[in-house]
Amino acid sequence: MNQYKKVAFYTLGCKLNFSETSTISRLFDDAGFAKVDFEETPDIYIINTCSVTENADKKCRQLVKRAMKINPEAFVAIIGCYAQLKPEEIGKIPGVDIVLGANEKFNLIEHIAALEAKQEQAILSYTSIKETTEFIPSFSYGDRTRSFLKVQDGCDYFCTFCTIPLARGKSRNASIFETILEAEKIAKTDIKEVVLTGVNIGDFGQGGNENFFQLVKALDQVKGIDRFRISSIEPNLLSNEIISFCLNDAQRFVPHFHVPLQSGNDRLLKAMRRKYERSLYAERVSSIKSLRADACIGVDVIVGFPGETDEEFMDTIDFLKDLDISYLHVFTYSERANTTAIKLGDPVPMAVRRERSKMLHILSDKKKRAFYEQNIGTERSVLFEHEEDQGVMYGFTENYVKVKYPYDPDMANTFRKVKLTEIDRDGIMKCVFM
Question: Where residue 4 falls among pLDDT bands split at 50, 70, 90?
């Protein structure tokens, strides 16, 4: 395989996948491969897949087809959650040469090196997810202004709608000491913001001698990183001591929490096998806002879960209307093989799911605008990003307000003190420098 030197990566799904793709791409850099864009006729395509929704599966197929149009002779490797869940199905996609499961993906170079020619039949290399017990540290670098630092992998929760435990295995992590070493590697780069990512990061330590709160306090001491952001944390694991530390005492943790809700109806939460009732969720939001009224709170919601009635959906709408939150991530429920939810019966018609999704997106827009309006006139610190978009550049405040400014390459990856002035027609905040 020495003659194959150009490799392209494509990542589907979550921040965790991005951190792992970036780590794998650095292994290829070290082995002498040149990383190129998808369209630049690479010799090897590596597609890191997601399987949270049916759409992610379809996207994988489309990408393989696109790769084969660009270079029919290219080797195609599929890794990630979809690869662990349905390797045989992926192996039948025309053009796929190798499919690697959760245990094998970090040994991708060795597998690629063993290929002599395009495969008539894809090579499948995977083991039972029960055998996936190793934690491989990862962080992203080079793609964005911020880095995604993987602090945890896998999940022990088995929510009825979710395939993640089947795709990633049991909850696990490195020690705090080892995680700090990874953060210090990032601190030596030009990265200024780190997003903590994982499948269920609040479960760090799994009840052992270390926990997520201890990790947060240790990371807050890492010099060379200006901001830490918590990507997503379960409400039952977001303790008041974590909230209080991040909002009152931390030097580097920002006032931004993303807290999955999934439903505002207690019967549905129980059917989803979530580990809280909506009263606890409301209490967490209240705790955050009582300490920092300007804190940003993002929420995940699923619509169309089996058996969700109009009344139960309106429970969610009414609950969210009354909550002081900043934006929603709305997911339309899709049937996933080997989950408990698919056995519940009583599916919600797809047209109803779409209509409910539309209603929640409208509510999200209203919540986000109200949150932005609360921030008009305030002074903030914005980390500007590299990308230029029609003469404009963007950045985020510490409390996750998206800001725009006329493009200036010297401002990329720098912090600027600004005053937020008005919301533009595209819903993004305008500012002036202080």
Answer: low
